[in-house]
Design a protein that fits this description.
The complex is a heterodimer. By secondary structure, chain A is an alpha+beta fold. Chain A contains four helices and three strands; from the N terminus they run αβααβαβ. Chain A has one domain: Ribosomal Protein L30, Chain: A, CATH 3.30.1390.10. In chain A, α2 (43-54) crosses α3 (58-71). The longest helix of chain A has 14 residues, at 58-71. Chain B is mainly alpha-helical. Chain B is 58% helix and 7% strand. In chain B, β1 and β2 form a beta hairpin. The longest helix of chain B is centred in the middle third of the chain and has 31 residues, at 113-143. The radius of gyration of chain B is 18 Å and the shape is globular. Classes of the chains: A alpha+beta, B mainly alpha.
Chain lengths: 104, 223
């Protein structure tokens, strides 16, 4: 089973609309941002971060949170490398264990 | 006596008695001090100067607080405090010897050392600066509280929420909680605590902060 959340056409739009400084960056599925499970971050807190940082609706935020919890990691965003690095930096600022990688 | 956070007319309200506020404040101050001492120069000229100088006495006070709570690495591993004083580079900050600092400022890329190094050069200072900003704000909120009732606006509540994560990450590393099973084990240990156990106070603090953060995160979840 794929570790990535089910992708649908609005997924990259969700991400792109939240890039703040980079609204004109064209979608590029080459890179991903990952969040890894850890024993400290609370399920409620991780959901809060996904809702407030990405602007994801509660249902999507909870699904991603459960993926992290149950599968050990989840892909929380796709896009250009610079944006994935921004997300990684921001999520680490929240204390989540975030990394970026080439989407392979 | 602590009472959980709840949302009230767009604000976040909890009760925390003075000794509990002091514990939370101590933990936040210690976590900020850890980041100020390690992981590179303080971007905003924080209160602590790792090179010594006029802030030296403050550093000693933070050390004393950390020792009191059993939070220093030395308290657990028996290692001396020397490792923290490594030189500060100009490019990517050095990788800390302290696993708690490495968890606060993790590698951005797991498989590629060059990518991880580049990320550390560009982003680690931003992550550190972000954390110090919310840790300092949360410390101000708690230090300024003069009564048990905490009645926080969204920005102060958010600073406290994020700070509690960083504090718990450090405490968990000191307690060697690295997997979900470790946490389950901690719960069992809490039921059979030996008051003479040096870890007991840290375990109780961690458990209390977990409860407190859970109530705040739940209250702050967007509806």
């Amino acid at each position: 089973m794929s570790i990535a959340p089910t992708s649908h056409p609005s997924t990259s739009a969700d991400v792109e609309s939240d890039t703040r400084a980079g609204a004109d960056i064209r979608p590029d599925p080459g890179w991903i941002t990952l969040v890894w499970n850890d024993p400290v971050n609370l399920m409620s807190y991780v959901t809060y971060v996904f809702q407030t940082y990405f602007g994801y609706p509660r249902e999507k935020a909870e699904r991603l949170m459960m993926d992290v919890h149950e599968k050990g990691r989840a892909v929380v965003a796709h896009g250009p490398r610079e944006v994935m690095e921004q997300h990684t930096e921001a999520l680490q600022g929240y204390g989540l264990w975030a990394t970026f990688a080439k989407d392979e | 006596m602590a009472r959980a956070f709840r949302r009230r007319r767009g604000r976040f309200v909890a009760d925390l008695a003075a000794p509990e506020r002091e514990i939370v404040l101590d933990c936040i101050v210690q976590t900020a001090a850890l980041l100020e001492r390690e992981g590179g120069p303080a971007p905003g000229a924080g209160p602590l100067d790792p090179a010594g100088g006029p802030a030296g006495e403050d550093a000693d006070e933070f050390e004393a607080i950390m020792r009191r709570a059993g939070l220093t690495d030395a308290a657990f591993s028996g290692d001396g405090p020397g490792a923290a004083a490594d030189g500060v580079g100009r490019g990517a900050p050095p990788v800390s010897d302290d696993p708690a600092v490495r968890r606060l400022l993790p590698d951005g890329h797991r498989d590629d050392p060059a990518q991880a190094e580049a990320f550390r050069a560009l982003s680690a200072q931003n992550v550190r600066s972000t954390k110090l900003t919310h840790l300092h704000r949360a410390a101000e909120v708690l230090a300024g509280a003069t009564q048990d009732r905490l009645d926080l606006g969204e920005d102060d509540a958010r600073a406290l929420l994020l700070s509690l994560t960083d504090v718990r990450l450090v405490l968990a590393e000191r307690l060697e909680l690295r997997t979900d099973d470790d946490v389950e084990h901690l719960e069992a240990q809490l039921d059979a605590l030996d008051a003479g156990d040096g870890r007991a106070q840290v375990m109780l603090t961690y458990d209390f902060l977990t409860w407190f953060q859970e109530t705040l995160a739940s209250a702050m979840l967007p509806r």
